[in-house]
Amino acid sequence: MSEPVADIALIGLAVMGQNIILNMNDHGFVVCAFNRTVEKVEHFLANEAKGTKIVGATSMEDMVSKLKSPRRVMLLVKAGAAVDAFIDKLVPLLSKGDIIIDGGNSEYQDTNRRCKALANKGLLYVGSGVSGGEEGARYGPSIMPGGHSEAWPHIKPIFQAISAKVNDEPCCDWVGDEGAGHFVKMVHNGIEYGDMQLCCEAYHLMKDSLDMTHDEMSQVFTEWNKGELDSFLIEITSEILKFKEKETDSEYLVERIKDTAGQKGTGKWTAISALEYGMPVTLIGESVFARCLSSLKDERVAASKVLDGPSTSKFKGDRKQFIEDIRKALYASKIVSYAQGFMLMRQAAKELNWSLNYGAIALMWRGGCIIRSRFLGNIREAFTKNPELKNLLMDDFFKKAILDCQHSWRVVVSQAAMLGIPVPAFSTALAFYDGYRHAMLPANLIQAQRDYFGAHTYELLANPGTFQHTNWTGRGGNVSSSTYDA
Ligand code: 2AM
Fold first, then answer.
1. Is 247 buried (19+), middle (13-18) or exposed (0-12) by CB count in 10 A?
2. What are the angstrom distances between the C-alpha of 431 and each of 282, 413, 421?
3. CA–CA separation, 176 vs 183, rounded Å?
4. Which of 145, 244, 426, 440 is exposed most, by the fewest CB atoms within 10 A?
5. Does the Cβ of 35 fall within 6 Å of ligand 1?
6. Ligand 1 site, residue 87, Cβ cutoff 6 A
7. CA 146 – CA 159 distance, rounded (Å)
């Protein structure tokens, strides 16, 4: 039997797993490494982990015997069946109060289910979002843990030590019960889709309606990165736009890349959740659909030869001003996107009975992850000022920011429509903003139509809570319907 020397075990030696282990080692923790294919443990110890305090295990039993109590085992394996398989193997080897952490990209409903199942066995379960890619995992990711809160004091010192820091504050805090950590990670990924789409729409306008060169576009993104849009994604967009593989290349690499966007699914999950919880998270939805449309490359190529747009796609006017208008349209749309993301989290929290700390979530995203930005600091301030804030758009800072951008935003959306350049995220964000600020929307007509053709009843503004049916045609009956759906 080995001595229990390790603070934590980590199963799964793919890139993320290896980097998290090395990161933990840097912060003085002794990690025991394990992997389904056990040869990878030897290889890791002899190479990347050489000269460190990292220990390896030859079997799950060996791994568990090396762990100090309460035992902490973190899984970084493929989401889905692999997580369940390892949990099943771990359960008989662990004791009451031991902790299993899933750091992979699991669906939050799976985490809900696993939490419940393991609680019955006396084990503490944590589902943790980890964002930041390879680099983040190695030097400081954003970490979003949720599940059994009794586990938090035991993993907090490790997780907060290895996480990214912004002004010395760790980008890792307890998120909430059950799958709350994975839910928040999912929304993060959806927001990431939205932020990327916003960059694409700005680029499309600059390239096709302003005929800007790549160096000019790159320069504009560099400038934007110095102000309120300061963020990782704006920064890398500037780098990408001016990138050539060789100085002598005639074309920029980005223009040689096929314009069909891939996706691994977490953006889609966010959009599905939005539909399930009935929250209008339209910008993320449009961003997912924009990727779907991009994937119809052959159809688009065929359509481009048949379907006409306006006579010109070239902007005629003050170019400098239009670039500033695009910046403001991007910023206002981004505010709407985050407002929508927080609306989704708030609704899920309400229905699943989670207590989420929105300011802490903003801080977790402030550094380490793909959507890291200065802007998340403003969101954190908004929720610190008012933890009960219902909607980001109602915060004074964001209210004023949108007001400052509003005219430009409308110019860009209307110009894009006239020039035939698709800006689905800019325009859906504006439509949402206009819808949200209307006390009266035309849904009264929908209610009338539903009652007209299906006797679904309606509620009078002057008589809340009472539903009535009208015989609109004089034909048919006066009986309301509760079965026919529309
Ligand atoms: P492997 O090295 O043995 O393939 C990322 O793929 C990580 O998840 C790897 O550590 C991989 O182990 C592990 N993994 C993938 N599918 C798995 C499964 N069905 N069971 C256990 N581990 C799995």
1. exposed
2. 9, 10, 17
3. 10
4. 440
5. yes
6. no
7. 12
* Strands 458-460 and 8-11, bridge-based pairing: unpaired
Is the bond into 92 cis (omega within 30 degrees of 0)? no
Q: Which atom of ligand 1 is nearest to the CA of 78?
A: 8
Q: Which of 437, 439, 421, 418 is nearest to 429 (CA)?
A: 437
Quote the CA–CA distance of 190 and 169 in Å, as a whole number: 25
Residue nearest to atom 12 of ligand 1 (CA): 36
How many Å lie between the centroid of ligand 1 and the Cα of residue 63?
17
The DSSP output letter for 71 is P
Q: Which residue has the tokens 């977490």?
A: 266
Q: What is the pLDDT along the chain (486 residues), one digit of tens a residue?
A: 557 899 999 999 999 999 999 999 999 999 999 999 999 999 999 999 999 999 999 999 999 999 999 999 999 999 999 999 999 999 999 999 999 999 999 999 999 999 999 999 999 999 999 999 899 999 999 999 999 999 999 999 999 999 999 999 999 999 999 999 999 999 999 999 999 999 999 999 999 999 999 999 999 999 999 999 999 999 999 999 999 999 888 899 999 999 999 888 889 999 999 999 999 999 999 999 999 999 999 999 999 999 999 999 999 999 999 999 999 999 999 999 999 999 999 999 999 999 999 999 999 999 999 999 999 999 999 999 999 999 999 999 999 999 999 999 999 999 999 999 999 999 999 999 999 999 999 999 999 999 999 999 999 999 999 999 999 999 877 777 765 556
Interstrand relation of 165-166 and 463-468 (parallel, antiparallel or unpaired): unpaired
Q: How far apart are CA 448 and CA 361, in angstroms?
A: 41
| Atom 10 in ligand 1: residue holding the nearest Cα | 12
Pairwise CA distance, residues 386 & 416, whole Å: 37
pTM for this one?
0.95
**Residue 328 appears among annotated catalytic residues:** no
Cα 173 to Cα 171: distance, rounded to the nearest angstrom: 7
Q: Which long-range contacts (CB under 8 A, 24 or more apart) does 10-13 make?
A: 10/34, 10/73, 10/74, 10/75, 10/76, 11/35, 11/36, 11/63, 11/73, 11/74, 11/75, 11/76, 11/77, 11/86, 12/75, 12/76, 12/77, 12/104, 13/40, 13/41, 13/44
Burial of 7 (0-12, 13-18, 19+ CB in 10 A): buried
